[in-house]
Amino acid sequence: MAPVAVFVGVMGAGKSTIGAAVAAELGVAFADTDAIIEDRAGKPIPDIFVEDGEPAFRDLERRTVAEALATFDGVLALGGGAILDEDTRKLLAGHTVVYLSVELTDAIKRVGLGAGRPLLAINPRATLRHLLDQRRPLYLEVATHTVATDGRAEAETTAEVLTLLRR
Ligand SMILES: Nc1ncnc2c1ncn2[C@@H]1O[C@H](COP(=O)(O)OP(=O)(O)O)[C@@H](O)[C@H]1O
Ligand SMILES: O=C(O)C1=C[C@@H](OP(=O)(O)O)[C@@H](O)[C@H](O)C1
Ligand SMILES: [Mg+2]
């Protein structure tokens, strides 16, 4: 069993939104590893970061992603930092992985003040710029498809992903 597609990309790329829209269009289930992690931890992601620390979150994330890749057959959205883990990147090999790319200007517009995203609590613009530079090569490494989302409406991005997946 394998997901129909796995969405990766930085915060604000649209993984959760576009992933759910693509799943609805395909008539398959949608799952977001961040939501699974929150369910399991019994608290929102910012609370996990503050109370347990980022390493505890990354550990939960690594295990949650590995389990979903092995057991889930719908559309799966990962959190933006999931690909930092080398084991996770290896596990993604062989899967259909859609990298939703976004540059700083649009990403900032979409995440606003970073509410709900603990890594953006301080200086969201500078942090996001750094994360984009650090992670872009990793997203490209795991991607089988890349879709640029800058300046595009959700419906356009969704349609392009569907075209790629149906090819
Ligand atoms: N072309 C687009 N593609 C993806 N998201 C878009 C687009 N245009 C606007 N958005 C908005 O950007 C936000 C992306 O947030 P989200 O899906 O949570 O991203 P992620 O899960 O990648 O952090 C949503 O509010 C969505 O409505
Ligand atoms: O980029 C990251 O390290 C993170 C991205 C978030 O998910 P989204 O990319 O869906 O916002 C969430 O997993 C957590 O706040 C950490
Ligand atoms: Mg998300």
The largest pleated sheet is described as: 5 strands, parallel
Helix content: 55-70%
Top-tier CATH class: Alpha Beta
CATH topology name, in short, is: Rossmann fold
Structural class: alpha/beta
The helix tally amounts to 8
Instruction: Quickly give the CATH architecture.
Output: 3-Layer(aba) Sandwich
Number of domains: 1
- Low-pLDDT segments, ≥5 res: none
Bound ligands, each once: adenosine-5'-diphosphate, shikimate-3-phosphate, magnesium ion
What is the number of beta strands? 5
Shape: globular
Distance between the termini: 20 Å
Compute the gyration radius: what is it? 15 Å
CATH superfamily: P-loop containing nucleotide triphosphate hydrolases
- Tell me, rounded to a whole number, the average pLDDT: 97
Describe this structure in a few short sentences.
This protein has about 170 residues and is an alpha/beta fold.
